[in-house]
Amino acid sequence: MKYDDLLERKEAKQLLLLKKLIFAGGKMRFNDMHVCLNVSKASLETYVSELMLQLTRYQKKITLEYDGEWLAVMLVPKFSLKQVERDFYTEAIRYKILIYLFYHPEFSTVHLAEELGLSESTLFRKIKELNNYLEEFGMMIWQGRLTGEEHQIRYFYFQLIWCIDHNFKEITCDNPHDFICLLEEKLVTSLCKESVERLHVWLTVCNQRALCKNKRYCQLRKLFKPFEMDLMYLNIRQLLKDYTAQNALILDDEEAMMQFIFIISMSILSEEDVENYISIRSKYTPTALTDKVILDSILQYYAPLTLSKDAQNKMFYHLFQNHPRLYFFKGDIEIHSTSHLWELEESLSSHSIKKLSNFLLQTAKRHLVKDSSVCTSLDQLTELKYLSILMLVDRQINRNVNIAVDLNMTSLFKEMTIQMIKLQLDSLNGVTCQVYQADTEYDLVITNEQDYEYSNSYYVLSELGTSYDIKQLKQLIRKIYSEKYISILTTIYE
Known about the structure:
The chain is 59% helix and 8% strand. The chain is of the alpha/beta class. The two termini are 32 Å apart.
């Protein structure tokens, strides 16, 4: 599921328009935009004029301009597009329906239609559309209530609220501070600010859902069997028993299961906390076994090149949080443009690690997911997380592709061009770029003279400062990298 699935077509296109402008540096031709958005020019003109009017509410903190040829967006330094996104989403009918169901687990369609100012036929259509998106979470709005496994429903609402607005003022929790302090004491840890905020939203969701009747736990109980003797889980279960006894509450045993799952899968624990937990957990749970398999696969891929102990610990810390989510939950909500992040991988890495990311995902799914053939948004975002982990690892591995720049031009323009090329290529991991020296061996030489010849690979610039040349150079560097390190990097997926 994507967040813009909550929007109507027009609003989704308008928000995408603003994002495309941001990705393009703030400016784009109108004709290019209508192709990017796959809308007619007439529709785009309507969207733009209406959007310009909508943005006046922000009092010039963000402005959209159109001169007949170019579209341009400007934001003041202290204003973020996230504010515009939040307002788009919270004003969307589908979002309002979901929040209404959060407060009213059992509802009357007549009352909900009146609340939203919709006809009943329109409301039924919106619910049908929502059910299409909720299906991957194993959820459905049916006969006046939201159905599904309880841990899935809580997971969904946490994702929905946290990513749109985790300072959600409409939702308040009955003093979560006491419980969080007890949790820190029980786990012998001190949670960071963001972890506390995430727990606050989670506990808010739990408090609200605890009031619901006929909660379903069948799948949760099956999945949790390998974790029933986990020491952290047992500590959390005892904490909940003590806490509920003090507050005259009665909670299901599954509440402790859900708290445990959230804590190990949702970026609550610090690196040190994870290291301590790893030392006491069972090595034979599905997630523990998968952690080891994936870690070994990555180390095997880079062998005999090695990572420092600190780098391995950091990598394991991120892997550790990936696998419980993949094991216990279904579905995810795409926050950022994943296609844009994959494009960043091409600009930041000197070799392709996308294939390895996919291999790791398929390996993890074979160990954790019953039906591993189905590809979901959770799979896609897990693969993206593997990519991010591999890029961090890549920065730690000491490998070099040595590039030299040899230009025939006046000293001023030569210096300017060399600095420009270095700026573009130095961001690639493992690439060193320097001025050409005849007595030094290089993997690649960049020149502007077609008649020059070099002992190794070389590239002749078409024109100074073109994005075409930089793109071609990056592709060539990836090819050189693969050829240079083919005997070192293990092809584990063949």
